[in-house]
Design brief:
By secondary structure, the chain is α/β, with parallel strands linked by helices. The protein has helices spanning 46-53, 76-84, 101-112, 117-130, 146-157, 176-193, 204-210, 229-233, 238-245, 261-265, and strands spanning 7-14, 23-30, 35-40, 61-66, 69-70, 86-89, 164-168, 196-201, 213-218, 222-227. The protein has 2 domains: 1-85 and 162-181 and 192-269, P-loop containing nucleotide triphosphate hydrolases (Rossmann fold); 98-161, no CATH class. The radius of gyration is 20 Å and the shape is globular. The protein binds adenosine-5'-triphosphate. Residues 7-245 form the ABC transporter domain.
Amino acid sequence: MTTTPFIEIDRVTFGYDSSRTILKDISLKFPRGQVTAILGGSGCGKTTLMRLIGGVHRPDSGRVIFDGEVVDTRDRAQLYRLRRRLGMLFQFGALFTDLSVFDNVAFPLREHTQLPEAMIRDIVLMKLNAVGLRGAAGLRISEVSGGMARRIALARAIALDPELIMYDEPFAGLDLISMGVAAKLIRTLNDVTGATSLVISHDVPECMAIADYVVLMATGGRIVAQGTPKELMDSMDPETRQFVRGEPDGPVKFHYPAPEIAADFGVAP
Ligand SMILES: Nc1ncnc2c1ncn2[C@@H]1O[C@H](COP(=O)(O)OP(=O)(O)OP(=O)(O)O)[C@@H](O)[C@H]1O
């Protein structure tokens, strides 16, 4: 087994405009074949990090290294090759509502390969089978539930056998059972396909249950802690504890700084 990370974020700083830095001097490594979860509150820069890995944006400084190759957003040929090896599941990964479940999963295969239709059929059914929805191939998107839609989007994301699968908030808006199904699927797909997975989420228990390695990220892309789920659960660091245990107050305050409550309501303290 090689020790070279599949993805390396090397001292990356990035802002959408010069007035605000979203990620500041971040370094991370994602090992091949593992599920890494990046946990963090809303707006801390998780999706931005994923976009940088996908070559959507260019870091202001630092490098993103994909399987030993520095990602260069100006190199169109490289980007095309890179994206072919990448499956991205966005938070609201839009399915084509006027197409059937089957045609949604077949879409990337028809777009990116010259495979004959008979082979596309076999691959689509295999991918749908992997997410437990082979029987739903003929349904229209309007006929499926939210949890099913998420699984169809996943089948579509793995249609081209990506080496890296990135999930943006895969558990958002799912009920507990669908959440458990989604979590187990991410783990299983990673293991059976030999892919490397990156899960971006704020659902602590689900990520702790399936990830090999967890990174805790705070505002400004600051890395609070990283380690195995067990290491983080056992951590005595107050900020890490607050994060993984979901305690409302700790070093990160629940209340935005405000005057004393009595002063705001005009009553004597
Ligand atoms: N295209 C954009 N242009 C300008 N600012 C953006 C853009 N996309 C995101 N931002 C800002 O960058 C910051 C980080 O956003 P990002 O989506 O990476 O956070 P996140 O951790 O994924 O949050 P969430 O969990 O809410 O999706 C936010 O303050 C957001 O408003």
